[in-house]
Please model this.
Amino acid sequence: MEVVAHAARVSIDYPPNTVDGIIECVKNGLKYIEVDIAPLASGDFIIFHNEKLDNVTNRRGDVFDLKEETIGNIHYSRKVDKKESQISSISKLIDLIKDTEGIEELQLDMKVYPTSLFNEKILNRLVKTISPAKKKLRLTSCAEWVLLKLREMDGELKLGFDPQFYMDFRRKKVNYPPFKKNKFGYYDDHPIAFQNWKSPLDYLEARAEALWNVGLGAGIWYMRYDFLVASLRDGFNWVDFLHKRGAKICTWTVDVTDGDVGEKLKVLQELKVDRVTSNTPLIWKKHLSH
Model:
């Protein structure tokens, strides 16, 4: 099982999605790193998670409306060793990693928000920008239409799909789809989720097959830890389903302490996941190396 550093953080106290964080991950021997990227109207992307700059940076407003020339003046409110961490463009990121040893794969998770627009022009620029380092990259998204367009533009791109916009199992409400919960406790807005299924296993098998048949060509699927555990409880193992079809699975976001890592490791070994994404990757790395 490989460990993925969530948002390029070596620990929960580190600010997310920074170039400095990627460098720190590499220094600590973390070969698999994830960062979030968000589009600008100009066609550029920045390494950032939220829809708005408010509360986490020194600026306010929609990310999509940012001008490229202002990117270098934006930094996170949280400091590391009294040092400000700047927001970076994806161009700067590519310049860094194409010559950096020690990175096996950098996951670029594309954020889709109501204020964002993933049109063909923006995606074309993204494909061109990442071209020098694409062998080290994997582009991932919850939006299957974005992945399908990227595969059409460049069939050599490594892709990953997170189905949480379509079906999920959550401990709390969130402000993105799906919004409706069916009788088995799964969030799923599709009418098929509310048919008179005899069991949760019947429902999960049908939904898994439907999602697979979309034909995304994603080599790795990314799934919430609680969703995988709930599905397994109901008799369906997503890992077995995807492995039989030649795809791997990464579960997120599983943070641990030295005290509870053993319990969660046992669950992930039962599931047979290929990767685990975490804000505490060094604890995972230490225990997996034993």
